[in-house]
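User: Reviewer 2 asked us to show a designed sequence for the structure in our supplementary figure. I'm pasting the structure tokens here. Could you produce the per-position amino acids so we can include them in the response letter?
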């Protein structure tokens, strides 16, 4: 059998459930199988860690949309450490975060001096300064993520 393109792991804690997704979200994301594996009792807030999402295509967006739509989780669903690839789609396709709260993201920020993107981790809490700049890993200067994306994700 071919290895799944998306793997998932659940950890049940006293106060929350951590679901870690890793890999590629595409038409092979069988969200119904994932939902069936989640606990049906003591459904504490669900933290979904998306740091390991490397790619997502248009069919994957559709599958993800149905995943969150069909989840029907009774307590908050928190999206954490969304990879920059996932964050990109999330800010362009607001339906993807329907019913979820986006807690933290990685966002690709362009440094013209290094001529490269670098990922900055941003916690989307009420203390976030949307105009804040981030130091490039080579220490050349502070660069700002696209503010409109942050605003969309915080709504
Ligand atoms: Zn730089």
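Assistant: Here is a per-position design you can include in the supplement:
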């Amino acid at each position: 059998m071919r290895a799944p393109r998306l793997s998932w792991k659940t950890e049940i804690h006293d106060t929350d459930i951590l679901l870690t997704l890793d890999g590629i979200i595409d038409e092979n994301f069988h969200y119904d199988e994932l939902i069936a594996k989640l606990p049906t009792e003591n459904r504490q807030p669900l933290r979904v860690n998306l740091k390991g999402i490397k790619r997502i295509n248009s069919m994957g967006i559709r599958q993800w949309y149905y995943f969150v739509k069909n989840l029907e989780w009774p307590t908050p669903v928190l999206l954490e450490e969304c990879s920059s690839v996932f964050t990109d789609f999330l800010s362009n396709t607001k339906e993807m975060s329907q019913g979820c709260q986006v807690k933290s993201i990685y966002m690709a920020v362009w440094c013209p001096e290094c001529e490269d993107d670098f990922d900055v981790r941003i916690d989307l809490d009420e203390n976030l300064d949307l105009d804040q700049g981030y130091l490039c890993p080579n220490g050349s200067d502070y660069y700002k993520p696209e503010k409109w994306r942050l605003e969309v994700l915080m709504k």
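For the response letter, you might also mention the following. The first strand starts at residue 6 and ends at 12. The CA atoms of residues 90 and 96 lie 6 Å apart.
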